[in-house]
């Protein structure tokens, strides 16, 4: 394909991503277990300026609810586990809760959902029997106030409710919680509410100790030989999150519930962790969350439920340093308490919260290079695209420049692919080039030829001021609106090489 055609393809991708396709929504969790909190008014002002459309609060925080009034932001309010017993046992306690925290806030604060409890079935099994009564009492109180059609009631569950999630087509719920889950699913179906799921590919990936490639967890393209296929359904999976969601869909189907949609009440990736949590890095966090948001906004569902859009509340706004648990659980935030960005992320329509873009360059320590032995014509096409429409800086490849020699297609493509990738990965650019590219953690620099993103270089791409809110300056030139993921090819090479591993490891 000529560079002109590539440009045409790129334009088409841009048009598609800026016009008709509307995916699920992206919201953000706001937990307030932090030692220094910004004011509710400042939080609301930030959400507004960033164009955030949905938030989830963990309790009926009076100040935040008041600050969100008049913003139009749709709010999911939580009922903490500590209040479950009271509300599950007493319809009048449930009615009082609804009156005080919901009815009295409407219509100024646009409450559209109530999340009853948090991961009750796995973290608080003793309270399981009170869960559905609590949901029922809250729903009855909404019916009494004629609010049930505009406010959905559900209960977020952890991924641990599924015993073994891969392959998704054989996943099932843990038997010990089946009775309560059946009641929960009946309630959700009857009230047409979604199933709320918290799913963290970071923890699934870490717990699996090397079974999954990191790229699978980060929504990055896998080399063709590593494509992952469910052996029973033959469905190809290109990311771990979709597999996790389909595992829950499949488990629900086993209980004859085929119509209840899943909404992700939590997903995210820690930007820091304990010394044993090596993959909890800012680089991986920005890549995961950026690709997560693009995946959701891109529309479409999972391989198993392509027609069911997925929506997500990114976890979470602030690092909650007062939470118990490993360092990673205190490091899932995207914004500092002083309301500057920890790393750039486009949570709403208002432009990304920009941190210093150079901090996003190469932070993951991954380089994108030509696959050895790749087809020469395909390399030439990819090289022309990267240096043309891809806006890679190919100056160093000119005759007389440091990376000209060895004068081979593979070397030149590697340099150009990597320069493109370092500039665009934070806005969704991928390392694929029609299957001729692959990522590596080995710095490909040699002699005076320094690859972009290398620690041997002084910086690499563009960088501008830091620590302030405002639109990102995407070095790839694809800044406005939601950045498209540029995928050159989706041709699937359905190799099931590591499925055998699953049978050994689980
Ligand atoms: C609240 O959100 C609902 C659901 O999208 C929307 O239809 C309604 O107009 C919103 N109300 C206000 C007051 O913004
Ligand atoms: C199922 O849940 C029970 C109770 O929470 C737990 O003890 C058990 O380990 C779980 N089983 C599996 C296979 O995860
Ligand atoms: C699901 O439906 C099938 C067919 O109607 C029935 O045989 C099966 O027992 C049902 N399973 C459950 C868990 O209700
Ligand atoms: C905000 O807080 C972070 C972390 O404490 C700090 O690194 C940064 O410099 C602060 N930014 C401003 C503008 O105060
Ligand atoms: C392109 O790279 C060369 C070095 O190879 C550098 O001198 C030049 O400033 C870069 N141009 C831009 C626009 O970044
Ligand atoms: C990708 O490569 C295949 C064969 O290697 C070729 O048939 C196809 O046209 C290429 N696609 C693009 C977009 O260049």
UniProtKB/TrEMBL annotation:
Subcellular localization, as worded in the UniProt entry: Cell membrane
Pfam family, any one: Glyco_hydro_17
Keywords: Cell membrane, Disulfide bond, Glycoprotein, Glycosidase, GPI-anchor, Hydrolase, Lipoprotein, Membrane, Plant defense, Signal
InterPro entries: GH, Glyco_hydro_17, Glyco_hydro_17_plant, X8
EC number from the UniProt entry: 3.2.1.39
Annotated GO MF terms: glucan endo-1,3-beta-D-glucosidase activity
Catalysed reactions, as listed in the record: Hydrolysis of (1->3)-beta-D-glucosidic linkages in (1->3)-beta-D-glucans
SUPFAM superfamilies: (Trans)glycosidases
Any single Gene Ontology cellular-component annotation: side of membrane
Positions with biased composition (Gly residues): 458-469
Record's protein name: glucan endo-1,3-beta-D-glucosidase
Taxon lineage: Eukaryota, Viridiplantae, Streptophyta, Embryophyta, Tracheophyta
